[in-house]
Amino acid sequence: MWLFFTLATTLLWGVAELFYKKGSHENEKYDHLRVCISVGIVMGIHAVFTLMTEDISYDPMNLIAYLPVSLCYILSMACSFFGIRFIEESLADPIENTAGAMCSLLCVIFLGEKIAPMVWVAIAVILIGIIGVTKTESSADVNRKQKLGKKLAVIAFAMPFCYAIIDALGSFLDIFFLEMETSPLIGITEENIELVANISYELTFAICGLILFIFMKLKQVRFELPKQKDKFAAAVCETAGQLTYVYAMSGNGAIAAPILSSVCVVSLLLSRIFLKEKLTKKQYLFISIIIVGILMLAVLEGE
Question: Is pLDDT of 253 > 90?
Fold first, then answer.
């Protein structure tokens, strides 16, 4: 069953990326906040459902205890939602998926961990791809600066990198938060520690969504539920993917991890088929290099 859940997670997250992009509108200033609100609503509902159906004694103080990690994940997603208003999903997603490599580097720098030579090769491959993709931004074929203006073009292209860095920081912090010996979470056991962390994250996202909703109301910006279908579809797929991810990794994690890392390939294909996104040949080349590096890293870390 773990293989079924692994494939389901990969597909769900790939479809979520498709709907995130489909539901984003370049000319609507606060559209990325609408996505955050939609995700907050769905995650809040899921958190409440989990609390009602699972035999768990949840301490609300865990919201504060887990806040550093929750904010990293929420902020990284907000950066992604802003970026995909202007950047092709098939370009942004592979860059965002380099978060795993960045987390590995953080472990080396701050924890003194040693990694195998081939892992360094995988990180180097990813770095080559990133440098290549960055170089293509200044080519005449891409022409993003002329379309968006120099400042917005730079900010938009920086967003996938911001996602990767902040998400990597969240994953790095999770090393301490998801270990019984170092975790500040309250009322946890080996069996429920990940569930408590996920509930805390989802409830925090719901609170952030509520704050953003109030902000938009004060700004007199409309948030009409019937018009947010794509955003809610993305949020449902994202949340469902989190649920199946737990079951996927509970089986054969060494094989599941590389498969899950291929979500950026699924996202690229779906964007090409359904959104008709087209990149330059050089962009496809360097994105392919990034994906190869990500898959190498996933395989090596699973060994």
Answer: no
Angle (CA) 252 15 163, round 5°: 80
Q: Where are the alpha helices (DSSP H) in the chain?
A: 2-22, 31-53, 62-65, 67-83, 89-96, 99-111, 117-136, 144-148, 150-177, 193-218, 229-249, 253-261, 263-274, 281-302
DSSP 113: -
pLDDT in tens, 51-78: 999 888 899 999 999 999 999 999 999 9
pTM value is 0.93
Contact between 279 and 287 (Cβ < 8 Å): yes
Q: Which of 69, 61, 12 is nearest to 194 (CA)?
A: 69
Q: How many CB atoms lie within 10 A of CB 108?
A: 15
